[in-house]
User: What shape does this take?
Amino acid sequence: MRDTFHDELDQIGVELVEMSQLVASAMSRATTSLLDADISLAEDVISDDSRVDEAYRDLEERALDVLARQQPVATDLRTIITTLRMIADLERMGDLAQHIAKVARMRYPVSAVPPELQATIRDMGRVAGQIIAKAGAVIATQDADTAIELESDDDVMDALHRRLFAALLDDDWSHGIEAAIDITLIGRYYERFADHAVGVARRVVYLVTGEMPEPAGA
Amino acid sequence: MRDTFHDELDQIGVELVEMSQLVASAMSRATTSLLDADISLAEDVISDDSRVDEAYRDLEERALDVLARQQPVATDLRTIITTLRMIADLERMGDLAQHIAKVARMRYPVSAVPPELQATIRDMGRVAGQIIAKAGAVIATQDADTAIELESDDDVMDALHRRLFAALLDDDWSHGIEAAIDITLIGRYYERFADHAVGVARRVVYLVTGEMPEPAGA
Assistant: This one.
């Protein structure tokens, strides 16, 4: 039997998954805009971040409203608090996609990514896509096994990030300082995006198992 | 008249200020370790981050415990939720200080900061110190005017950040790619540190005025 509180919680869960899809779309388009120097796509990602921010405010308000009206305790209270944190993670992930689109816009009509790094950045975009899709699935299903998969996706992201640095530090690097700054920041944005997705998954594990995760990014 | 709930809230506020002092100390020492290539100071900052994480876990547990036991509503509920977010901001600021100390450690026995950028990084460290001190004061006093001051400190930080980039892109830059990567990341860490401090101050303004701040870093 479901009561009003759990119905409301379920609805918030559904919209949290929708918010994760907005973020996934933003990141996917940001990566394409960066690789292809697609200014109109970059502009779309930048302006669409307001939709992520709106989802953030809307979901936060609803979660706080449920908290105030229903006065949940124990597991239910933990679920609401954890939901508030996941909303904040997703909002930040939207910002990071927007940051990537801003680099694309700044360097237009050239791609900020030199030819020899296009494959690595494409892979980082692909892993970012996987990781946010899995984070959404974890929210929807509360499946702790998928949450563990995210940790290994995050390891792949870290390896790609190291590959970026190796390319920058190679004697053959011929694109100068400005491109190196861009790649350093872009790499950092993808890495942080993955960290936040892992944060979301860890919070779900915490909900399911009751074990407090370590702070993300520690 | 104060009741148990408000006494507990006051105590959490006191410990939140103490946590901000831990973070301020970490950032101040991280900056010194970076400028002076002081490996033992860098190691101290890195290992002391566990104290920030401990304060985070302890304060979070206490806030959740108060929330569960006291079932606050309206302003009191908002205060607890906002407190949870400020704890998370401070934890992240501790991580950023640790990241700076890790760059110092990685480049030891050389400073990661070339001579001509030492003054700018010193200024960024000084502004970071001001901004975390003011964030602590805002938590302690709930003074919205000091919270507004933080926004202009953040503008100073942004200007210093732009100065770093200008130096990297100057034709006279003679320190190569690795140093440019270091400076790019270090600059980002200081900038994010300031952003989180502004986030803390905005949350206090929200508590005092009831106006929802924009998401930090938007």
Summary: The first helix of chain A runs from residue 4 to 36. Chain A has one domain: 4-209. Chain A touches chain B at residues 49, 53, 56-57, 64, 67-68, 71, 73-74, 77-78, 81, 84-85, 88, 91-92, 95, 165, 168-169, 173, 177-178, 180-181, 184-185, 188, 212, 214-215, 217-218 (CB under 8 Å).
